[in-house]
Amino acid sequence: MAGRLALITGASSGFGALFVREGAKVAIGARRMIAAGFKAHGRRRVVLAGSITAEITGQGDAAYAATKAGVAHLGRQFAREWVRAGVNVNVIQPGYIRTEIDGDWFDSEHGKAQIAAFHRKRMCPIDALDAPLLLLASDMSAHITGSVLTVDDGQVL
């Protein structure tokens, strides 16, 4: 990834840090990416950060779930609109991962019960996203566009 440019959306959970560790320059937002020379970097990859909540229902997270469902559709729409320009757009939908947003929820009684209800009874570590993100941002994904990749350790099965 050294010398490459990555557009990161929904990166508050640390996705951007992965690309920085791999030597990529990270632009948060499409305008900054274009200004930073998107075309000059050759490879044109956009990975949008979704969530498995786009596929499931839960109590009290309707706005978040609807937004993430919108991200999944937006990714497919952008892929369709930008395919002839050589831009690959994909969405990664992580499962439940401990982040700052969750606070101590998964240490609470209800949070522990939620983890116990997962088929593998565990959370996804943040580094479970490393390989899929690097795949979607690399030349290996030259023929992958318009895809929504769920990385959730089977949490929604």
Write a structural description:
The protein is elongated. The chain has a single domain, classed as Rossmann fold, CATH 3.40.50.720. The protein has a 5-stranded parallel β-sheet with strand order 2-1-3-4-5, with helices on both faces. The chain is built from 5 helices and 5 strands. The chain starts with a strand and ends in a 6-residue tail after the last strand. The chain has 157 residues and is an alpha/beta fold. β3, α3 and β4 form a beta-alpha-beta unit. Helices cover 32% and strands 15% of the residues.
- The proportion of residues forming helix, as a percent range, comes to 25-40%
Order of helices and strands: EHEHEHEHHE
Range of strand content: 5-15%
> Which structural category do the helix and sheet elements fall into?
alpha/beta
Number of domains: 1
Radius of gyration: 16 Å
Distance between the termini: 33 Å
Total strand segments: 5
Under CATH, the topology is which? Rossmann fold
What is the averaged pLDDT score? Answer: 81
What key attributes describe this structure?
about 160 residues; Rossmann fold; single chain
Quick gist of this model?
This protein has 157 residues and is an alpha/beta fold.
Spell out the blueprint of helices and strands.
Blueprint: E1 5-8, H1 15-21, E2 25-27, H2 30-35, E3 45-49, H3 62-82, E4 88-94, H4 109-117, H5 130-137, E5 148-151
Parallel strand pairs: 1-2, 1-3, 3-4, 4-5
